[in-house]
Amino acid sequence: MAAYAYSTSSSDIPTPRSISPSASVISGRSSQSSISNKRMSISSRRISASNPMSSVDISAIEEAMKMATLDTHRGYAQNHYGQVQQYAKTEYISQNQAAGYQILREPLWNKGLSFTPEQRVARNLTGLLPHVMENLDKQCERALRMIRSRQTNIDRYLYLSTIKDQNVDLFYRLLIDNAKEMMPLVYTPTIGDVCLQYSTLYTRPEALYISIKQRKSIKTILQNWPYPNPEICVVTDGSRILGLGDLGVNGVGIPIGKLALYTAAAGIHPEKTLPIVLDCGTANETNLKDPLYLGMRSKRIPVEEQQEFMDEFMEAAREVYPEMVVQFEDFESEKAFNYLDRYRHTHKCFNDDIQGTGAVVLAGYIGAVNLSGVPLEEQRLVFMGAGSAGVGVAKQLVEYYTKRGLSEAAARDKFWLVDTKGLVTKDRGDKLADHKKYFARTDNNGHQFRTLEEVIEYVKPSALVGLTATFGVFTESVVRALKASVDAGGLGRRPILFPLSNPLTKAECTFEQAVQWTEGTVLFASGSPFSSFSVKTGDHIVTHHPNQGNNVYVFPGIGLGAILSKASKVTDNMIYTSAASLAASLNADEIHKGLIYPRIERVREASIIVAREVMKAARLDGVSTLPEEQWIEWEEWGDVALTKYIKERIYDPVI
Ligand SMILES: NC(=O)c1ccc[n+]([C@@H]2O[C@H](COP(=O)([O-])OP(=O)(O)OC[C@H]3O[C@@H](n4cnc5c(N)ncnc54)[C@H](O)[C@@H]3O)[C@@H](O)[C@H]2O)c1
Ligand SMILES: O=C(O)C[C@H](O)C(=O)O
Ligand SMILES: [Mg+2]
Question: Per the record, which residues fall in region Disordered (predicted)?
Answer without folding.
Answer: 1-48
